[in-house]
Write a structure and sequence with these properties.
Subcellular location: Mitochondrion inner membrane
Structural class: mainly alpha
Protein name: Mitochondrial carrier
Keywords: Membrane, Mitochondrion, Mitochondrion inner membrane, Repeat, Transmembrane, Transmembrane helix, Transport
Membrane topology: Multi-pass membrane protein
Shape: globular
Number of strands: 0
Distance between the termini: 11 Å
Family: Belongs to the mitochondrial carrier (TC 2.A.29) family.
Length: 297
């Protein structure tokens, strides 16, 4: 049961719990991310479903290919978590002060999530770009640093921020849907009277939030993958450049279903992944509370 006067844990504890949870989620669900990217980079009518994509990758490229590009998201997790926690704290306090509210509402949760997602997007773009380049079936890069070297050589340092605008919109829509949904689901669930009940509520709310966040941001994720995975000659204007025109192009040329390519592996990762994140965070924070004792317990 929650204790009203329990002192909040220090930032380092929340940061560590978030990093542990994020790394746990990545290691558990990463192969689904590889399959999702492959499906999104495929133009025209989809040739492979989820299971067929897994079989094809393992048969033609080996099981290890399902973990190609794993290093960038692992390296990203610490700065990403630090940015996420700091941004959530900053924007949450800012919106509370602006509105005069004393506690979070669903509208403020959505606004805070969107603003924090926009802030986070500036940190993640280079790591996402390297990951997409390595996950592509046509990739010939030797590893993450080879990707970085070749991008800088070809396009300069700003080349590492290809897909910045699409990543911005992807994170804004994901965070808005995820946090807004979590707030609503938690308010509908029975009040947790024990630690186990709180974990159950977190798992349910996180899973539903993950599904909703995925449903609203997948079209932007498809565009981001197309922009970051593009192969074009120097001086040639890329087919996919800005987010909303690219959405229209994909819709017109491939139909509305193309905007949801990779949705199944994405939702299979991020729906339970959202639950796992909240579950691991809460479990890790509870360990810190027990270690530190009063007044944190």
């Amino acid at each position: 049961m929650a204790v009203p006067d329990r002192k909040p844990l220090p930032f380092i504890a929340n940061f560590t719990a978030g990093a542990i949870a994020g790394i746990s989620e990545i290691l558990t669900f990463y192969p689904l991310d590889v399959v999702k990217t492959r499906m999104q980079l495929e133009t025209g009518k989809s040739k492979h479903g989820l299971l067929d994509s897994f079989r094809t990758i393992i048969k033609e490229e080996g099981f290890g290919r399902l973990y190609r590009g794993l290093v960038p998201p692992l390296l990203l997790e610490a700065p990403k978590r630090a940015t996420k926690f700091a941004a959530n704290d900053f924007w949450g306090k800012t919106f509370l002060k602006m509105t005069g509210e004393t506690k979070m509402t669903q509208q403020l949760s959505i606004a805070t999530g969107c603003a924090a997602g926009a802030t986070e997007s500036f940190v993640v773009v280079p790591f996402e770009l390297v990951k997409i380049k390595l996950q592509d079936k046509a990739s010939t890069f030797a590893g993450p640093m080879d990707v970085v070297r070749q991008i800088i050589k070809k396009d300069g340092l700003l080349g590492l921020y290809a897909g910045m605008e699409a990543t911005f919109w992807r994170h804004v829509w994901w965070n808005g849907g995820y946090f807004g949904c979590i707030f609503q689901v938690r308010s509908l669930l029975p009040k947790a009277e024990s630690y186990q009940a709180r974990l159950r509520n977190d798992l349910i709310a996180g899973t539903v939030g993950g599904f909703v966040g995925t449903a609203v941001n997948t079209p932007f994720d498809v565009v981001k993958s197309r922009i970051q995975g593009a192969h074009h000659a120097p001086g040639v204007v890329p087919k996919y450049n800005w987010t909303y025109p690219a959405l229209v192009t994909i819709f017109r040329e491939e139909g509305p279903a193309a905007l949801y390519k990779g949705f199944v592996p994405k939702v299979l990762r991020l729906a339970p992944g959202g639950g796992v994140l909240l579950l691991v965070v809460e479990a890790t924070l509870n360990v810190f509370r027990q270690m530190l004792g009063p007044p944190y317990v």
